[in-house]
Amino acid sequence: DAEKQAYKERIKVLLREKNAVLVAHYYTDPEIQALAEETNGCVADSLEMARFGRDHQADTLIVAGVKFMGETSKILSPNKKVLMPTLEATCSLDLGCPVDEFSEFCDAHPDHTVVVYANTSAAVKARADWVVTSSIALEIVEHLDSEGKKIIWGPDRHLGSYIQKQTGADMLMWQGACVVHDEFKAKALANLKQQYPDAAVLVHPESPQNIVEMADAVGSTSQLIAASQKMDNETFIVATDRGIFYKMQQLAPEKTFIEAPTGGNGATCRSCAHCPWMAMNGLQAIESALTDGSGHEIFVDEALRHKALIPLDRMLDFAQ
Ligand code: CIZ
Ligand code: SF4
């Protein structure tokens, strides 16, 4: 509508004035992803967002996502101003992995290599040997396992179990979960599959094991998007945040995408699988970050930044 259009126009002007670029996650609302594309920013997973921000010539990054993504961008781009639409947007995995308790867990197993998911605070990353995102976690754990390393994995227990099963690695798990993916229900998914027998099921491995077991393809956001393009099926049932439908539909407009059910009653829930924190990234919040940076800027303590950069760079070098 007119109000939204006005916000978009103001944001475009502000981005140019401040030499800023909008970096958005696949789980943000469709209008935010569309705006990032229209303004030559990027729409990506957390690994690609961090890389894009690091390599871009902008002075300011507007990171539309959740706090750990802003922190990761700042760690990789210390000389850029990193703004977020809201600093309130967090993640249940980050919240469920406080650094003091996690460090104690690590200290109790000093012979283990500490591998943490990107969905953690800068302080937790600083305690880790490796940072991984879901698009590269499997390869990195495989590599560590082949060197005979024992692993501490945190914080997502479902992703950890999935990787453990795939690789057979020796892994001690932190017991975190994503509030979005943890809600997918196997019985309702089985019913939906009966209704759409030709549909392929795409699952993000932050989902519970019984959902992963029903998948035709398991992978990170970017891997699921690639699968939805590559596979011949006309219909897909998708178990991840519904924000991803924007990109899937854009790249395969002739295909049909259906949300995996989060309710136990067999009905598909049209708005359940959406991260409440990702949803905080609205147009108004972006405009306010660009007009009044205060209260929107990400800072990471310099000593902490240096420590967190080591396991992050390890991942980025491995991903080359
Ligand atoms: O669930 C998330 O927050 C994901 C998938 C992050 C990422 O790595 O893009
Ligand atoms: Fe965290 Fe889950 Fe939201 Fe991703 S979707 S930011 S893992 S709560």
TrEMBL record:
Named cofactor requirement(s): [4Fe-4S] cluster
A GO molecular-function annotation: quinolinate synthetase A activity
Pathway it works in: Cofactor biosynthesis; NAD(+) biosynthesis; quinolinate from iminoaspartate: step 1/1
EC number: 2.5.1.72
Subcellular location(s) of the protein: Cytoplasm
Pfam families the UniProt entry points to: NadA (PF02445)
Record keyword Metal-binding present: yes
UniProt KW keywords: 4Fe-4S, Cytoplasm, Iron, Iron-sulfur, Metal-binding, Pyridine nucleotide biosynthesis, Transferase
Catalytic activity reported: iminosuccinate + dihydroxyacetone phosphate = quinolinate + phosphate + 2 H2O + H(+)
GO biological process, one term: 'de novo' NAD+ biosynthetic process from L-aspartate
SUPFAM superfamilies hit by this protein: NadA-like
GO cellular component: cytosol
Co-factor binding details: Binds 1 [4Fe-4S] cluster per subunit.
Binding site residues for [4Fe-4S] cluster: 91, 178, 275
HAMAP family, per the entry: NadA_type1
Function: Catalyzes the condensation of iminoaspartate with dihydroxyacetone phosphate to form quinolinate.
Similarity remark: Belongs to the quinolinate synthase family. Type 1 subfamily.
Protein name (record): Quinolinate synthase
Organism: Neptunicella marina
